[in-house]
Write a structure and sequence with these properties.
It contains 21 helices and 16 strands. It is an alpha/beta fold. The protein starts with a strand and ends in a 17-residue tail after the last helix. The chain binds phosphoenolpyruvate and magnesium ion (MG).
Length: 558
């Protein structure tokens, strides 16, 4: 049986299940007996709140002296400790006692009311209601003199399964005994997920069927695929072992520059969509940024952002990469990224319409402002800024963009190769552009004439197709002839096997989402340029391409 959920990170772990103990049962709502007066009940609650607070502060203090992830837990624990002091919450508990409730029932109702309010707010606030619930449980446990719900103990390392984990529990996890976490609730922004990520604990959250797991079940938890395999076969176990060993080796190389076994350097860069993505990119060992998609600045607004706002945002990113390469792409509006103020409403075929550079040429002011902002941000920072345009069809458009960008003072100006026509004109393009970055997502879409957003033709969206690889080769060859850098920044770069083939074709840098860097770095480190070239030769023949079964076509018989 395989249970699915949301994986946090890409780790893999296996072991026996141990479930979190059940939560404390709802206290009776019967009025308390006449011989307990309200003042005594209030002072019991105050003492319990104080003890829970002290306990959380003690844990926060211990966490503050731990590793980076534990330190993040410390600030969460401190915030939780402060929740025990909330005057409105205290008033509502005292009011419950005033109505004749027992201390534990008043705590249950008081916390429950506040939890419901937070839940109703939705999103981030509703996830904080789980934090409040946890504190309520601890206070009730103290009042009832029972053990607070918490992480179970076992001599053998185990996979912890829970409905959800409180931040206090997650912070207290001992990675030596907890192999992985599986929760049936809690989203990707819950504290469980945040702390699991920060502490590099393998986790799958929001896996509803995890509620069926029982103590002693053997499971493989695969965060990359967001799956939990229950009582797996020997074969599944050995595949998982191999994957784990590979992931551990790959992680061990983090921080080293990308390169082949023979020393050929292949810089590994990150694709980012916002300045704050610089953090994860650097954590995963990106050597710079190979694609900064600037659409985020434009998408939420009814009109283009001003030069000053743009300058601020680009500066924020560039400041994080002093001395390193950062490739920023000007706005790619249209098709799958329509913008109301730029994209015509009724294009019958938007992927072939006013998109990327075509749209910017039709709205010169938007392009001028963006280039001006990039130039200002460049002057204020020390990153090695490269600027490129999307959807450039040929040398004429390349020359248009390069000339304009250089007139604004930008020094390194290139183009994306996404439209097949550019591959046929690659020598002419190399004569005018400083670099080419191949967007394999669109290059595949346009080479195969299959809309990348359409499920019915998704089988064509495969960059292993020899036609796509031959287009890439035309560009890489021109790069070699003209001494022009050629990188890949589409999803193809994130596939470790395909990354080797791309390098064999002559591509000299790869950019991908940060989480993919470890595996690509490890795969490249395991082969020489000669081996990469021979794999590329075979890939160009189609040896590694498997046409996917098309559900819309009857299989041929006979
Ligand atoms: C691409 O097309 O490969 C690319 C990187 O651009 P986007 O995915 O943003 O269209
Ligand atoms: Mg693209």
């Amino acid at each position: 049986m395989v249970i699915t959920g949301v994986g946090i990170g890409r780790g893999i772990a296996m072991g026996p299940v141990l479930r979190m103990p059940d939560p404390i049962r709802e206290p009776s709502s019967r009025p308390r007996s006449d011989d307990t007066d309200a003042a005594t009940e209030v002072s019991r609650v105050d003492a319990a709140l104080a003890r829970v607070r002290e306990d959380l502060e003690r844990r926060a203090d211990a966490a503050a002296h731990g590793d980076g992830g534990a330190r993040q837990a410390a600030s969460i624990l401190t915030a939780l400790a402060q929740m025990t002091d909330d005057p409105a919450l205290h008033d509502s508990i005292v009011a419950g006692i005033g109505r004749g409730l027992t201390a534990q029932r008043a705590v249950f109702e008081g916390f429950g009311g506040f939890e419901a309010k937070l839940s109703a707010l939705g999103g981030y606030m509703s996830e904080r209601s789980a934090d409040l619930h946890d504190i309520g449980q601890r206070v009730m446990a103290d009042l009832l003199h029972v053990q607070a719900p918490g992480i179970p103990h076992s001599e053998r390392p185990f996979v912890l399964v829970a409905t959800d984990l409180s931040p206090a529990d997650t912070a207290a996890l001992d990675p030596g005994s907890v192999l992985a976490i599986v929760t049936s609730q809690g989203g990707p922004t819950s504290h469980t997920a945040i702390l699991a990520r920060a502490r590099s604990i393998v986790a799958v959250v929001s896996a509803a069927r995890a509620a069926d797991l029982v103590n002693g079940d053997n499971v493989i938890v695969n965060a990359a695929s967001g799956t939990v395999s229950v009582n797996p076969s020997d074969e599944e176990v050995s595949v998982a072992r191999e994957a784990k060993a590979r992931a551990d080796r790959a992680k061990g190389l983090r921080g080293l520059p990308g390169g082949l076994a023979d020393g050929t350097a292949i810089p590994l860069l990150a694709n980012v969509a916002r300045p704050q993505d610089a953090g994860p990119a650097l954590e995963y060992g990106a050597e710079g940024v190979g694609l900064f998609r600037t659409e985020f600045l434009f998408i939420a607004n009814g009109e283009p952002p001003g030069v000053e706002e743009q300058t601020r945002e680009y500066t924020k990113l560039l400041e994080r990469f002093p001395g390193r390469k950062v490739v920023i792409r000007v706005l790619d509006a249209g098709a799958d990224k329509p913008l109301p103020f730029l994209t015509p409403e009724n294009e019958p075929n938007p992927a072939l319409g006013l998109r990327g550079l075509r749209s910017l040429k039709a709205h010169r002011q938007v392009l001028d402002d963006q280039l001006e902002a990039l130039s200002r941000a460049d002057r204020q920072t020390r990153a090695d800024l490269w600027v490129m345009a999307p959807m450039v069809a040929d040398q004429y458009e390349a020359a248009y963009f390069v000339t304009l960008a250089k007139s604004k003072g930008l020094r390194k100006v290139g183009v994306m190769a996404e439209v097949p026509s550019i591959a046929f004109m690659a020598d002419e393009v190399a004569a005018v552009a400083d670099f080419v970055s191949i967007g394999t997502n669109d290059l595949t879409q346009y080479t195969m004439a299959a809309d990348r957003t359409l499920g019915s033709v998704s089988g064509y969206q495969n960059a292993w197709h020899p036609a796509v690889l031959r287009a890439i080769k035309l560009i890489a060859d021109a790069g070699v002839r003209h001494g022009m850098p050629v990188g890949v920044c589409g999803e193809a770069a994130a596939d470790p096997d395909l990354a080797v083939v791309l390098v064999g074709l002559g591509v000299n840098s790869l950019s991908m989402s940060p989480a993919a860097l470890d595996d690509v770095r490890a795969e490249l480190a395991g082969c020489t340029l000669e081996q990469a070239r021979s794999r590329a030769t075979r890939a160009l023949r189609g040896d590694f391409y498997h046409p996917s079964a098309d559900p819309h076509v009857e299989p041929l018989r006979g």
